[in-house]
Amino acid sequence: MSIQIRSKGGYVLELDEITEVFAPAKQSLESGLDEKRDLRDDLNAKVRVYLDTRNEVNRQVKELISEVRSQKEIRDEANSRVKELKVERAGKSDDLKIIRTELREILSRLDENGERGKKPSGPSPSKIKAKMDALERKYERGGFTGASEKGFFREMKKLSQELKEAKNSNKDGGRLSELKSGVRSAERLQEEAHNRVEKAVVDAQEAHDLMVELSEEVDRLRDQANSAHSGLTKSKKEADSVHSLYIVSLRCIHSIQDLIKAIETRSRGGTMDEKPEVSDLMSKLMSGDTLSTEELMSLQRI
Predict the structure, then answer these.
(1) CATH fold of 4-271
(2) E-strand spans in the chain?
(3) What pTM, to 2 d.p., does this model score?
């Protein structure tokens, strides 16, 4: 039995003719559904990959930035230590300079007297002093009278000069030995202070170099994260666009199906009985809501 539909203008269309008009469009739309869905799913998979990559890189960036701050603190602390140690080294250098200056003065004085490198000659100050004390006691007992008294004074004057020279000679000699030992000690302390400065400088430079290296790695990773974010944004936009085309195609297919069913039902004098779940899904779809893959597949099977 042929079903006919009369238009307002009186033109009569067979249902088969109506179906023939919409069939190619419906077939074309259906043939592209799977392709659109697969393309959309591939793009969404790319979005997920880009998202994971960006988040992972950003996590690494966060850790590296924390390490950069740590190395900066180490560097700054080492630089402060360098300043303190340089002050300490300068003090040791000044101490060494003072001792060396005094040593040169004594050596110069010994050179002028021709005594450098010579052992002290003549009696020691203690022997000269003992002789002077003996003469003094003899004088007090009246052991020197007349001409001998003048000889006493000459002898005491001579011994006094010898005592002075002996004391100066012993003083320079003892001080010379002390200063030589002091120079060796001061040189050792100055060298130790210098080594501490050098070590602190190396520590500061190593921390600085590592900080710079980490900062460069942070910049590289940030570029990588930005690239992943750009890829994510682009893929998300493409996926949304393909999904919109997929939804439009699905709506058109369902509308064609509904139209044909409605025409067929009306021509037979009946009423169209659409399943409640189908009506609910189409209402969601037409209102712009997102349907799950299972719900979309349900519409395709109707």
Answers:
(1) Helix Hairpins (1.10.287)
(2) 4-6, 12-14
(3) 0.49
